[in-house]
Amino acid sequence: MPEHFKNFIAGDWAAPTSGEYFENRNPADQNDLIGLFPRSAPTDMQRAIASAQRGFARWSKTPAPVRGQVLQRVGQLLVERKEQIARAMTREMGKVLAETRGDVQEGIDTAFYAATEGRRLFGRVVPSELRHKWAMSYRRPIGVTGLITPFNFPLAIPTWKMFPALLCGNAVIFKPAEDVPHTAHLLVEVLLEAGLPPEVVQLVHGQGSVVGRAMVEHEGVPVISFTGSTETGAVLGATCGRLHKRLSLEMGGKNAMIVMDDADLDLALDGVLWGAFGTTGQRCTATSRLILHEKIHDRFVTMLCDRAGKLRLGPGLDDKTEVGPLIHEEARQKVDAYVGIAKEEGAAVVLGGRTPGEKRLECGWFYEPTVFAGVKPGMRVEQEEIFGPALSVIKVGSLDQAIKVNNGVKYGLSSSLYTRDVNGAFRAMEELDNGITYVNAPTIGAEAHLPFGGVKQTGNGHREGGWEVYDFYSETKVVYVDYSGRLQRAQIDTE
User: Fold this and answer.
1) Which of 17, 107, 160, 483 has the fewest CB within 10 Å, making it most exposed?
2) CB 215 within 8 A of CB 193
3) How far, in Å, CA of 358 to CA of 226, rounded?
4) Three state DSSP letters for 85-151
């Protein structure tokens, strides 16, 4: 009998009012049923919002350093349970164990960083233009924050959103992706054990179109943070704009790695293998485009196909595995469809482009690492996010042309340049139209204490991580104290 998991609402683990559940299966082995999770109804979300409002009333009055101490304990518990959570995450999401350990470590880093911010929620004291008057600002909590998170980083991305929101004094409602509900369950267990007051966090499983929508449209949730597709983000933007909600969007990417003719090619090869095929290409920062200088193009493509063709596919819990499965059959069908599109557009499939034929892989959503050569700017495989182990190679004749190709897409998350030319590196840092640029490193590798996010249709200007995210989850309040004992009129009585 499979285990029936519950939501966490109003300080208790609760079955969905709908009485309905959905299956959570291992993408590497569809015969492995992890459990049944609530297919919640809008009424469950309404209960969660009412509870979170009560939690906010208490938590917002807790001193920020004390809130930080709770998150410090969260980090310590994650350290103790790192292996357990990583294994559970690999089982339900598919990526290799080394990566899920890194996913948990990112949560640990985020917790410890957030804990220090409990003593660093700085305001400002500035001189008043009037005598005997004090002028200052400080940060204050906002209210209930709704968090909608994706499948590819089941613990790291929720912690990017949740820990800063909690540190700032908000209550949170957590709606994880339907593909990774178990990791979300384990994270909430850690929060509660660390001493977070129960009504400060709510966990509501279910469909985004049902419970996610109920949360976004409810007037009692003034802040929404979403990571997912640009198309869904556009819908949320329209809804939150109409309802005057604060919204953070982290959406798609079509990230390019540029390799110039003076680059260390062995280093660049290691970088593109990790950037393109790590997490089976299911990262918003994945290296989806490889821009090669014409002088090294043919040699590098040969090196790439040789190495990528030897990557071992398999279950993420197998120590020999280098590339795990895609998250579900729909994702695999999407990658396969783009192989057809590449051929129709005149690109060459020089590696992969098919489902592996090995019997040991037939129960999972595996797809061979795939490389498209002869890709031209403007082709769909060069412009559209595939979100799988598919890499488009574009040939250029100069750094100027490489920068133009990089910037010629609707996304602007991450970029990368491999070169030994310091002048070229600084030009690229300035001219590549992305929120993140790496020099002599792949397009992935963000660290928890720096802001994370992109430009154009990748986001709406806010950042996850680092110091900037604390501004998103708090309000600035300005205070004036006049101790002159008489009416003083700003901009008038200034002499």
Assistant:
1) 483
2) no
3) 38
4) HHHHHHHHHCCCHHHHHHHHHHHHHHHHHHHHHCCCCCCEEEECCCCCEEEEEEEECCCEEEEECCC
CB 96 within 8 A of CB 324: yes
**Domain at 255-439: CATH architecture:** 3-Layer(aba) Sandwich (3.40)
Distance (Å, whole) CA 175 – CA 153: 14
The two tokens of residue 474 are 């708090």
Residues 241-277: tens digit of each pLDDT: 999 999 999 999 999 999 999 999 999 999 999 999 9
Element (H, E) at 197: none
Any catalytic annotation for residue 284?
yes
For the chain, the domains span: 7-251+459-478, 255-439
7-251+459-478 folds as Aldehyde Dehydrogenase; Chain A, domain 1 (3.40.605)
**pLDDT, tens digit, 9 for 90 and up, residues 111-136:** 999 999 999 999 999 999 999 999 99
Mean pLDDT of 440-453: 96
Residue corresponding to tokens 């488009």:
392
* Alpha-carbon gap, residue 464 to 249, rounded angstroms: 9
Q: Which of 199, 250, 382, 464 is catalytic?
A: 250
In this prediction the pTM is 0.97
Sheet of 475-482, strand order: 124-127, 133-140, 475-482
* Burial status of residue 32 (CB atoms within 10 A of its CB: 0-12, 13-18, 19 or more): middle
